[in-house]
Amino acid sequence: MVKICGIGAGYVGGPTMAVIALKCPSIEVAVVDISHSRISAWNSEKLPIYEPGLEEVVKQCRGKNLLFSTDVEKHIFEADIIFVSVNTPTKSSGLGAGKAADLTYWESAARMVADMSKSDKIIVEKSTVPVRTAEAIEKILTHNSSKGVKFQILSNPEFLSEGTAIQDLINPDRVLIGGREGPEGHEAVLKLKGIYDHWVPEDKIITTNLWSAELSKLADNAFLAQRISSINAMSALCEVTGAEISQLSDALSKNTKIGPKFLNASVGFGGSCFQKDILNLVYICESNGLIEVANYWKQVIKVNDYQKSRFVNRVVSSMFNTVSGKKIAVLGFAFKKDTSDTRKTPAIDVCKGLLGDNACLSIYDPRVSKDQIHKDLSMDSEVKHVSIVSDAYEATKDAHGICILTEWDEFKTLDYQRVFENMQKPAFVFDGRNILNVDKLTKIGFIVYSIGRPLHQWMNNIHQP
Ligand SMILES: NC(=O)c1ccc[n+]([C@@H]2O[C@H](COP(=O)([O-])OP(=O)(O)OC[C@H]3O[C@@H](n4cnc5c(N)ncnc54)[C@H](O)[C@@H]3O)[C@@H](O)[C@H]2O)c1
Ligand SMILES: O=c1ccn([C@@H]2O[C@H](COP(=O)(O)OP(=O)(O)O[C@H]3O[C@H](CO)[C@@H](O)[C@H](O)[C@H]3O)[C@@H](O)[C@H]2O)c(=O)[nH]1
């Protein structure tokens, strides 16, 4: 029986390994992590991450061909194929701080693999890594392992999106496998391909050289983020010209050369990947002397930062240029709907911006815990300016304004007449996700701001810094 070890039981490692176990009953999959709390959550009724459909997959396979363990060494030792899905955050200090990928976790995983391996193994890079990381990993492995043990490194980047991870894994657009040229590299690629062959159609499995696979992942995220910054840049222009962003998106989407996805204007993109991976790309460009290319990609992040601060300025300037002491309801904190993940969520910057102007925030998110929000806003529980509540009506009661920061479906169907009656007047809605019916809300009496839509006359005469 083929044995797989997945190192890293996070948003990628957990769901990807669970789907491999589901689709390949003849393969034994062990998911290992150094975090005891994460592993015990994977072994419990309440999984450490929320993803639609994940619980069903885990329940179906756990205890059969899927196990979660902290015994990293044992499972590395036993495995034929090792998938590494550890975190690769942005470096926070030292050379490349604020841009380069921090490969500390990757290196420590590689060293453990070198120490524990007594037989040949295939090492699969699932984490997003800088191009040519495989070369560094090969060096760590060959210089530290027992004599005669051979490793083949493959790049198999993951393209799942949070909130649709299971769907994306079961029915991927494509699976990318990069390997070394030559017969041994080729054989390793075929072995990994053999796993995906259990459920992914042949024409969706793309094989490339190692460096193309590694760089494709960074390019993929950079292109996606660039599209959001492009539509967000247009949203600013729409607001001052009377054009409407949803009509613009619709018109663009009908151009088959452009296509319909990733054209929703928003308060800004968030999530653990986009900013980190673009910064990583910028660092690689700069390190190779490609300053113009680096500056091009940097601009995607600058526009995203601009969009978040533009939103905060719009809230403050609309409300008589001050939100000091005013209750603002924040609906949604996760970086997008259907996830409890708050990594790099635009809500953090918006909330901090509003707190900077002394607002009193009442935050509600259907999936994000109180503790997480406290951690993200780096505050202790005594802070009086933030309350975290368990219901949208409670959040909006007596509020002066509402900020929609995540596009949760339940915010579309709130009883806005009831919400309006319980708010201070004038009552403002700032829709950072364009999910509400502006006409309906305006008829109720709200003053509505919706990203990229013609401005309410209230805001029309207010100069935006
Ligand atoms: N989150 C996503 O949607 C997504 C999608 C595609 C790719 N990626 C990439 O996948 C990688 C993982 O992302 P994530 O969101 O799953 O991160 P995560 O932080 O949720 O999970 C990483 C896990 O690795 C564990 N870990 C770290 N070092 C370890 C070691 N030496 N041995 C065992 N376990 C170790 C950590 O404890 C953690 O539980 C990153 O490179 C990310 O860029 C993420
Ligand atoms: O039209 C859009 C689409 C997305 N977003 C925002 O962009 C961010 C990222 O969204 P999404 O890409 O759906 O989620 P992620 O889970 O971060 O997935 C991205 O990052 C992953 C990690 O690398 C990749 O695997 C995926 O392919 C890539 O889509 C979120 O804040 C969204 O609200 C918009 O503002 N407008």
TrEMBL record:
<feature type="binding site">
    <location>
        <position position="33"/>
    </location>
    <ligand>
        <name>NAD(+)</name>
    </ligand>
</feature>
<comment type="pathway">
    <text>Nucleotide-sugar biosynthesis; UDP-alpha-D-glucuronate biosynthesis; UDP-alpha-D-glucuronate from UDP-alpha-D-glucose: step 1/1.</text>
</comment>
<dbReference type="GO" id="GO:0006024">
    <property type="term" value="P:glycosaminoglycan biosynthetic process"/>
</dbReference>
<dbReference type="InterPro" id="IPR036291">
    <property type="entry name" value="NAD(P)-bd_dom_sf"/>
</dbReference>
<dbReference type="InterPro" id="IPR008927">
    <property type="entry name" value="6-PGluconate_DH-like_C_sf"/>
</dbReference>
<dbReference type="InterPro" id="IPR001732">
    <property type="entry name" value="UDP-Glc/GDP-Man_DH_N"/>
</dbReference>
<protein>
    <recommendedName>
        <fullName>UDP-glucose 6-dehydrogenase</fullName>
        <ecNumber>1.1.1.22</ecNumber>
    </recommendedName>
</protein>
<dbReference type="InterPro" id="IPR036220">
    <property type="entry name" value="UDP-Glc/GDP-Man_DH_C_sf"/>
</dbReference>
<dbReference type="InterPro" id="IPR017476">
    <property type="entry name" value="UDP-Glc/GDP-Man"/>
</dbReference>
<feature type="active site" description="Nucleophile">
    <location>
        <position position="273"/>
    </location>
</feature>
<comment type="similarity">
    <text>Belongs to the UDP-glucose/GDP-mannose dehydrogenase family.</text>
</comment>
<feature type="domain" description="UDP-glucose/GDP-mannose dehydrogenase C-terminal">
    <location>
        <begin position="329"/>
        <end position="438"/>
    </location>
</feature>
<feature type="binding site">
    <location>
        <position position="343"/>
    </location>
    <ligand>
        <name>NAD(+)</name>
    </ligand>
</feature>
<dbReference type="GO" id="GO:0005634">
    <property type="term" value="C:nucleus"/>
</dbReference>
<dbReference type="GO" id="GO:0051287">
    <property type="term" value="F:NAD binding"/>
</dbReference>
<keyword id="KW-0520">NAD</keyword>
<feature type="binding site">
    <location>
        <position position="162"/>
    </location>
    <ligand>
        <name>NAD(+)</name>
    </ligand>
</feature>
<feature type="binding site">
    <location>
        <begin position="273"/>
        <end position="276"/>
    </location>
    <ligand>
        <name>NAD(+)</name>
    </ligand>
</feature>
<dbReference type="Pfam" id="PF03721">
    <property type="entry name" value="UDPG_MGDP_dh_N"/>
</dbReference>
<feature type="binding site">
    <location>
        <begin position="86"/>
        <end position="90"/>
    </location>
    <ligand>
        <name>NAD(+)</name>
    </ligand>
</feature>
<dbReference type="Pfam" id="PF03720">
    <property type="entry name" value="UDPG_MGDP_dh_C"/>
</dbReference>
<dbReference type="GO" id="GO:0006065">
    <property type="term" value="P:UDP-glucuronate biosynthetic process"/>
</dbReference>
<feature type="binding site">
    <location>
        <position position="38"/>
    </location>
    <ligand>
        <name>NAD(+)</name>
    </ligand>
</feature>
<dbReference type="Pfam" id="PF00984">
    <property type="entry name" value="UDPG_MGDP_dh"/>
</dbReference>
<dbReference type="InterPro" id="IPR028356">
    <property type="entry name" value="UDPglc_DH_euk"/>
</dbReference>
<keyword id="KW-0560">Oxidoreductase</keyword>
<dbReference type="InterPro" id="IPR014027">
    <property type="entry name" value="UDP-Glc/GDP-Man_DH_C"/>
</dbReference>
<feature type="binding site">
    <location>
        <begin position="127"/>
        <end position="128"/>
    </location>
    <ligand>
        <name>NAD(+)</name>
    </ligand>
</feature>
<feature type="binding site">
    <location>
        <begin position="8"/>
        <end position="13"/>
    </location>
    <ligand>
        <name>NAD(+)</name>
    </ligand>
</feature>
<dbReference type="GO" id="GO:0003979">
    <property type="term" value="F:UDP-glucose 6-dehydrogenase activity"/>
</dbReference>
<dbReference type="InterPro" id="IPR014026">
    <property type="entry name" value="UDP-Glc/GDP-Man_DH_dimer"/>
</dbReference>
